[in-house]
Write a structure and sequence with these properties.
heterodimer, A: 3 domains, globular, B: alpha+beta, Alpha-Beta Plaits, 2 domains
């Protein structure tokens, strides 16, 4: 049965059909008919952001904390171009997002009309797929297809560009069950032959390691459950990328901590020394591998990924398995159990002894202080005072992000939202807004640096307007900390443009928006100040003044392999040289 | 199965399966891509090549199934085996791409290109151009007293060879279509 309605009404109807309860957006001329329909209904809640980039990041936060696609509305021209950073962020982190953008009417497209931009052209390389809908009759089925594309296979952002005349015109509405999903049907089951090879390798491995990534989280809670089961049953050590934190609990006995450039010593050395690497839903990113020709030289590598283009992109996989993590792990477990649950217990015990030796290095130790707050200390206290609570963490990008990954423990998936692939400063605050909208009763904290946070500080307006009690935990070192660290490592401590001379008074800033501001600079006051933040029922800006020149360790300097880690300041100055200098 | 997902015996290069994935050897492959014929689909394919730094030696595109809204894009590209595999995988993940075939790797195929060559000259050179055109089975599709336009169909190599011969005989302009290719056999 088809129903006649306007394009604008179709948008709202299709979103309802897709089970959307919340959209993030910002109106404008080319979106007015859709906003008029939003006004005339109560099923979908619209969160008015203060900048379109924030709308996309908020939708990402919503998506990552719920597992459902996030939805954002932006207008034509500048609305769409402001969305580009968020779309690229979602593309690199494989986050399902559906963005609806307004466009000038079809008869004006190409005339350089007011607020016209070639939105599908601009967003083609930063979306998984996009559509310009020129006929109202096709609009609803395109929206349904867009949700299918965004959420199937490797998830990602999609964009639908809707000219204003298409929104006004009347056409036939196609309901979700009738809408053709198209030919896009990615493979989810892995090749059984290769899975059996992997099981054989698991049975024989002497120094195995699980290396897991965001694909486990994207595959859904069942995949994390299966991962936990297989890790417990085999007793193999497990490390994870930044994106995969929480899939295996930080309190689990096989947990090595995060790996990679700022990963833990034991995790990186386990990767370097292993004889079987089982990559589950990670993509051998350059933050992980370090120098490629010296990456884990003695291991056989299994790679489970739903995207065939991830296989053999940078590291040759000996056992490539294209499929959804959940489905593949289920098969791995089934076959491994059927063959008698064998592992080489003796060798694994020896491997763990080696790992325990590495753990003794205690790579996260830092020099404490009684007078200044060390950023690591601030995060340790935040962890201690929030542990056990229904807690979601977002971050901005930089040193604080790495410290958060190192010092906070994640027990469950979907609790950690950070910009991994693109490294988008300004991500964390709007993402925390999106998370809080999805989980109104939960504790949502954005661990931030003051520089990143200022990039989307306008979202204080959103937080206050919608009573979102997001906690902005700013580790304020008055520096672009990671840039400054690299300038120390690479450019002879010439700190070009990496400090801020005119920072706002964050307490006054909070008050100006009608929120609460807290400043803390004495380690002795820190616990009370954090408790004050947690106890306040409303948005808080917490200005935590920390050590200004603290470096983030451990660190694999660019161009070096996993076993060449810097552990402390003594090795830091001018540590990056030669071929590594051109890498970022 | 090999990581290349190629059936045994399906390749005319007998040692194809033995080549190392991460070798430095540059190979030229003809890749044929069946796409949904919708606005922007060519831009998606070309954007992939430019965005990821792959080479396009030649590219042809045209609708091949009007009712099914399908177009065929034939791309000749050069890269290491790893890059060629990446190109195919990356093409495969474009939502509007129906299927991707590497004609070079999957067995024997026929490749043809059409070229128009304008050759201007008089006297002995003009006669020689006509004589060579006959050898290459090129057709004269336009003629003036001082010039010919030859139409030549064949493999890119054959067209290269003919163009090279015409150069000293007064080659003025060349227009080439790029390669169209299909696998041999019934399937």
């Amino acid at each position: 049965m088809t129903r006649q309605m306007t394009g604008a009404k179709m948008v709202v109807q299709a979103l309802k059909d897709q089970g959307v309860d919340t959209v993030f957006g910002y109106p404008g001329g080319a979106m007015l008919p859709i906003y008029d329909e939003i006004f005339q209904q109560n099923d979908i809640r619209h969160i008015l952001v203060r900048h379109e980039q924030a709308a996309i990041h908020a939708a990402e936060g919503y998506a990552r904390s719920t597992g459902k696609p996030g939805v954002a509305l932006v207008t034509s021209g500048p609305g769409a171009t402001n969305a580009v950073t968020g779309l690229t962020d979602a593309l690199l982190d494989s986050i399902p997002i559906v963005v609806l953008s307004g466009q000038v009417p079809t008869f004006m497209i190409g005339s350089d009309a007011f607020q016209e931009a070639d939105t599908v052209g601009i967003t083609r390389p930063c979306t998984k797929h996009n559509w310009l809908v020129k006929e109202t009759d096709k609009l609803s089925s395109v929206i349904h297809q867009a949700f299918h594309v965004a959420t199937s296979g490797r998830p990602g952002p999609v964009l639908i560009d809707i000219p204003k005349d298409v929104q006004f015109a009347t056409g036939d509405y196609t309901a979700k069950p009738q809408a053709p999903v198209g030919h896009y049907q990615p493979q989810v089951k892995g090749d059984i032959e290769t899975i059996t090879q992997l099981v054989e390798a698991i049975e024989k491995a002497e120094r195995p390691v699980f290396y897991t990534g965001g694909g486990v989280i994207n595959s859904g809670p069942a995949a994390s459950q299966l991962l936990r089961e297989i890790v417990e049953a085999t007793g193999f050590p497990i490390t994870s990328t930044l994106m995969g934190l929480g899939a295996y609990p930080a309190s689990g006995k096989s947990w090595l901590g995060m790996l990679g450039m700022h990963g833990l010593y034991e995790a990186n050395l386990a990767m370097h020394g292993c004889d079987l690497m089982i990559n589950i839903g990670a993509r051998f990113d350059d933050r992980i591998t370090g120098r490629l020709d010296a990456f884990s030289p003695k291991s056989k590598k299994a790679h489970i990924d739903i995207d065939p283009s991830s296989i053999n992109k940078v590291i040759k996989a000996d056992m490539p398995i294209v499929g959804d993590v959940g489905h593949v792990l289920e098969d791995v477990l089934k076959i491994w159990k059927a063959r008698g649950r064998k592992v080489n217990r003796e060798a694994i015990a020896k491997w763990w002894q080696q790992i325990e030796e590495w753990k003794k290095v205690d790579c996260l130790t830092y020099k404490g202080s009684e007078t200044v707050i060390k950023p690591q200390y601030a995060l340790q206290r935040l962890e201690a005072l929030t542990k056990g609570r229904d807690r979601y963490i977002t971050t901005e990008v930089g040193q604080h992000q790495m410290w958060a990954a190192q010092y906070l423990g994640f027990e469950d998936p979907n609790r950690w939202m950070t910009s991994g692939g693109l490294g988008t400063m300004g991500y964390g605050f709007p993402a925390s807004v999106g998370v809080q909208v999805a989980h109104p009763e939960a504790l949502v904290i954005n661990v931030a640096g003051e520089a990143s946070w200022l990039m989307n500080m306008q979202e204080m307006g959103t937080a206050v307007q919608f009573n979102l009690p997001v906690k902005q935990f700013i580790l304020n070192n008055e520096r672009l900390g990671m840039v400054r660290q690299w300038q120390q490592l690479l450019h002879g401590e010439r700190y070009s443009q990496s400090w801020s001379e005119a920072l706002p008074d964050f307490v006054k800033l909070a008050e100006a928006f009608g929120a609460k501001g807290i400043i803390c600079k004495d380690p002795a006051d820190l616990d009370d100040a954090i408790m004050e933040m947690l106890d306040h029922d409303g948005p808080v800006i917490f200005d935590c003044l920390v050590e200004k020149h603290e470096n983030c360790f451990p660190m694999i300097p660019s161009g070096e392999p996993h076993n060449k880690m810097l552990l402390g300041d003594a090795q830091a100055t001018n540590a990056i040289a030669g071929k590594g200098a051109v890498l970022v | 199965m090999s990581p290349l997902q190629i059936k045994k015996g399906s390749s005319k290069h007998s040692a194809y399966n033995l080549r190392p994935t991460f070798s430095d050897v540059q190979e030229t492959h003809t890749i044929t891509v069946l796409v949904e014929n919708e606005p922007g689909v060519l831009a998606r394919v070309i954007g992939l090549f430019s965005g990821r730094g792959y080479n396009i030696d030649s590219l042809t595109v045209a609708e091949v199934d009007h009712e099914g809204h399908l177009s065929r894009i034939t791309i000749v590209t050069t890269g290491t085996p790893q890059v060629i595999e990446q190109i195919k995988a990356q093409l495969g993940r474009i939502v509007s791409v129906r299927d991707v075939h590497d004609l070079t790797a999957e067995g024997s195929s026929v490749e043809r290109e059409l070229a128009l060559l304008k050759v201007a000259g008089a006297g002995e050179k003009r006669v020689e151009a006509l004589r060579l055109a006959d050898i290459f089975r090129a057709q004269v599709v336009d003629s003036t007293l001082e010039s010919f336009v030859f139409q030549l169909t064949g493999t890119p190599d054959k067209i290269d060879a003919f163009a090279e011969l015409m150069r000293p005989l007064g080659l003025v302009q060349v227009a080439r279509t790029g390669v169209a290719a299909l696998a041999r056999g019934a399937a």
